[in-house]
């Protein structure tokens, strides 16, 4: 189903949102027929509970959605989405019980409950339509839902149909949709145009490496988004075991997330100049794969010793970040499924991020709470700089020892953003490991709504 709100309709049925412990108060104002039905069905307002109430002729008249307890709500991002599936088809109008401060998040959650990845088999959930709650900016919420659906689809599509050329086409489709300009540098032209590390990482693949460069807007502050587009990661010559390779179609999750964010920015018409850079590669194994102990020279001129070919994401991002930095934008943000260390630190649900200024860090953290888009700040810890300096080259792509892997990766990336004071890096997971209300198992959008919410303050929009 389209992730859109239903138009106001006389046929819509009232939906009453009732917290656990408040059912009796609501029933006190209802006729005996309704009280008897609700009591007989055992509806208690628990989170995720739903009940359709029939009229005297047995036709649906209204419905109840459980809003749970405060503790249960703290543990669930989209409360109404938990009840939406149980209500089935139909059109619903929130009649009572939904706190105004929760309306935007819950409305978004309802729309996302209707998402299903159906490219190969129909997985459309049986979720009814919702009329936008009073006071909610329906158009904005629909844009957010569309951005997330786009992001999830891109990650969910396997590499067979989402290799570097396919990712380029997805970016071209997005550019055409919004009238953006796009330029793509492919294969040997990467060397001619000084993107040596993007070329090196992707040269072993049958699908040529490329750098996607999209621009939109001609006035206002400059924002550049950089997304890791490793469409599949075998690990290269440092080959991953099969158990670690199974989810590597999602290693372009950073690219998918920045394209989703770009869609939201352009669809909402934010008054800024947007640039999106996506190094799109596949880290494959062939006779021309790059090797451990190779030393690469980056676009910025910094040399990098390769101590693990499976730490390739930071290499392709480095060339893209160097290009971004040359333009001296007001803000650079990179997003990548970069390190297992970040997953160990905060798990799959939080998006850890690094920021070069307190203003930037605080704006993202504040917006994340409002948007129900959980993030967690990690430090650019300067004393760890020596861990990424191997001596034989300027930088080490995979420091030994196993400590602080997410931080050392972020410090590595920061070396390529020297002329832009405000830089944030998001080390996301990009995957929902188990289904939850409003979040199907599979590709995930993380940190995007937090960034979007922070932009007005950061760029004075």
TrEMBL record:
GO terms for molecular function: manganese ion binding; metalloaminopeptidase activity. This is Leucyl aminopeptidase. GO terms for biological process: proteolysis. It comes from the Bacteria. InterPro entries: Leucine_aapep/pepB, Macro_dom-like, Peptidase_M17_C, Peptidase_M17_N_1. GO terms for cellular component: cytoplasm. Residues 308-315 form the Cytosol aminopeptidase domain. Belongs to the peptidase M17 family. Keywords: Aminopeptidase, Hydrolase, Manganese, Protease. Gene3D superfamilies: Leucine Aminopeptidase, subunit E, domain 1, Zn peptidases.
């Amino acid at each position: 189903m389209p992730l859109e709100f239903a138009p106001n309709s006389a046929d819509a049925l009232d939906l009453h949102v009732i917290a656990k412990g408040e059912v009796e108060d609501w029933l006190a104002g209802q006729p005996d027929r309704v009280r008897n039905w609700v009591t007989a069905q055992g509806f208690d307002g628990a989170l995720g509970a739903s009940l359709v109430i029939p009229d005297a002729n047995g036709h649906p008249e209204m419905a109840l959605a459980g809003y749970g307890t405060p503790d249960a709500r703290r543990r669930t991002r989209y409360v109404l989405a938990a009840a939406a599936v149980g209500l089935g088809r139909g059109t619903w109008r929130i009649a009572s019980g939904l706190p105004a401060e929760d309306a935007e998040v819950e409305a978004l959650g309802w729309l996302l409950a209707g998402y299903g990845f159906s490219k190969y088999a129909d997985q459309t959930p049986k979720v009814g339509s919702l009329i936008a709650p009073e006071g909610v900016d329906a158009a904005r919420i629909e844009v957010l839902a569309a951005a997330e659906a786009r992001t999830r689809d891109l990650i969910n599509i396997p590499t067979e149909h989402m290799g570097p050329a396919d990712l380029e086409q997805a970016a071209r489709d997005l550019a055409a949709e919004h009238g953006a300009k796009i330029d793509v540098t492919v294969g040997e032209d990467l060397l001619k145009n000084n993107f040596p590390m993007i070329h090196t990482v992707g040269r072993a693949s049958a699908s040529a490496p490329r750098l996607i460069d999209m621009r939109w807007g001609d006035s206002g502050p400059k924002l550049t988004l950089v997304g890791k587009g490793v469409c599949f990661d075998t690990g290269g010559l440092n080959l991953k075991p099969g158990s670690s390779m199974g989810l590597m179609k999602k290693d372009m999750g950073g690219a998918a997330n920045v394209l989703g964010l770009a869609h939201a920015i352009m669809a909402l018409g934010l008054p800024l100049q947007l640039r999106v850079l996506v190094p799109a590669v596949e880290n494959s194994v062939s006779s021309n794969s790059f090797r451990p102990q190779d030393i690469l020279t980056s676009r910025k001129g910094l040399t990098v010793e390769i101590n693990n070919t499976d730490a390739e994401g930071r290499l392709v991002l480095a060339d893209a970040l160097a290009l971004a930095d040359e333009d001296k934008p007001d803000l650079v943000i990179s997003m990548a499924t970069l390190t297992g260390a970040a997953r160990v630190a905060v798990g799959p649900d939080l998006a850890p991020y690094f920021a070069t200024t307190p203003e930037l860090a605080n704006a993202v953290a504040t917006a994340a709470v409002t948007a129900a888009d959980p993030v967690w700040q990690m430090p650019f810890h300067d004393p760890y700089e020596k861990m990424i300096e191997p001596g034989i080259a300027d930088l080490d792509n995979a420091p030994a020892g196993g400590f602080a892997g997410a931080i050392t990766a972020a410090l590595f990336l920061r070396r390529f953003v020297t002329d832009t004071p405000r830089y944030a890096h998001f080390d996301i997971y990009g995957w929902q490991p188990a289904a939850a209300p409003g979040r199907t198992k599979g590709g995930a959008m993380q940190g995007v709504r937090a960034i979007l919410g922070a932009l007005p303050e950061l760029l004075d929009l």
